Amino acid sequence: xxxxxxxxxxxxxxxxxxxxxxxxxxxxxxxxxxxxxxxxxxxxxxxxxxxxxxxxxxxxxxxxxxxxxxxxxxxxxxxxxxxxxxxxxx
Length: 90
Hints:
Elements: H1 2-23, H2 28-52, H3 58-84
């Protein structure tokens, strides 16, 4: 359940980054690109809390890290690719 909450939280955070970029007169792709590094930091912090505080072994936390970071990052990558070339013809 915690993994699902983290993934949904990441998608919500991505939406907030995109909204902030649009409000600051930047592109949607900029918001998605900027989201990646803070989300990596949050995902790693989540993993380290699981390892050190909850005593979950690394071999269990690494696949969870891949999902927690990977799903929102993949959506951010897609958004950046989809909206990154807004002014050019394909």
